[in-house]
Amino acid sequence: MIAVVGAGLMGAATAWQLARRGHEVTLVEAHDIGHRHGSSHGSSRIFRRAYADPLYVGLTGRAYEEWRELEGDSATPLLRTTGGLDLGEGRDPEALAGVLEGAGVPYELLGAEAALERWPFIRFDGAVLYHPGAGVVDADATVAACVRRAGELGAQVLTGVRVVGIKDGRVGLADGREVVAETVVVAAGAWLPDLGLSVVLPELRVTQQQVFHFRQRQPADEWPVLVAKDADMQVYGLPSGSDGGAGPAMKVAEHDRGTPTTAGTRTGIVDSGSRTRITTLVEDRFPGLDPDPVAEATCLYTTTPDEDFVLDRQGSLVIVSPCSGHGAKFTPLIGAMAADLATGKGVPHPRFRLGR
Question: Is residue 77 pLDDT above 90, yes or no?
Fold first, then answer.
């Protein structure tokens, strides 16, 4: 039997991948499925192919196929293609174009005037990379689909029970029960540093992030996802989905200015400084949006020093932490890779090892 600790995106996907392969699985979640305390809630996450690192470009291609597989198996639409933009000197659109060219990923490199003609609701001041394969993933629907299908395929799902210890395949629960497994997959997100595991983890920095939703001035405008970076800040934007309320909206947030916290001490209170910076940016750069937020929320990042993932096995433990604020797009692929490690069919990528 294989136990999976944590039913966020990665744990849920791992349980689904294992169950569909015919393995006996127990999925343990401290909260309810789809809770709002971690990193996996909300109706919108970016899927994009544009990375400066060829490793991740390749993984996005594999992830896309796994998304379509999950959609087919669950009969649930999860990934909506919108196209994606990269802009700002810090993103270096020309360099990104070279990486996509080498990987055979379709793209266009546009000047500011050409980009403005296509997306008049955004202000551009330099080169822009557009790649049509980008889109939006519904995180809430993904977690629900994976857990539902895992259960239908025979997995046992335990919710509302906290893990208090993991040792030698034994998962101790706060209610006194114990789950005994041959292998334990730990996909606990920001709670990972608090579990007292018998492995040496990389330094994991947990931060509270703030996200804001802005109503589109013209509901018919078709907004792409986007990543923009200059000398002062890096932001991302994407269609909000249901998180934006009634009517089309865009979710806009800072990527690199979270507030240090822990999973147990986060306040959930939106940082006013982040709100001011983002609303100012929206007013300046996104004339197609009303700069008064219609909704706002917080979530958690768990970031490694090199921003690479953790996906490794030591003994009976598999550690799954595709994190650093860019893991959601890989969800079903990470589930497959974790399932491979848990069943002895995979080898950890050197860059994702615990002791790298």
Answer: yes
Assign 3-state DSSP to the chain and report helix, strand, coil percentages, each to 5.
30, 30, 40
What pLDDT does 322 receive? 86
Same domain, 238 and 259: yes
262 in a domain, yes or no?
yes
Q: What does the alpha-carbon distance between residue 250 and residue 353 come to, in Å, rounded to a whole number?
A: 36
User: Is the pTM here over 0.85, yes or no?
Assistant: yes
Domain check: are 18 and 150 in the same one? Answer: yes
Return the pLDDT at 127: 97
**Rounded Cα gap, residues 233 and 241, in angstroms:** 25
275 and 344 in a single domain? The answer is no
The arithmetic mean of pLDDT across residues 211-215, rounded, is 98
Contact yes or no for 346/353 (Cβ under 8 A): no
**Domain membership flag for residue 72:** no
CA distances 188 to 122, 179, 195, 321, Å, are 38, 16, 9, 8
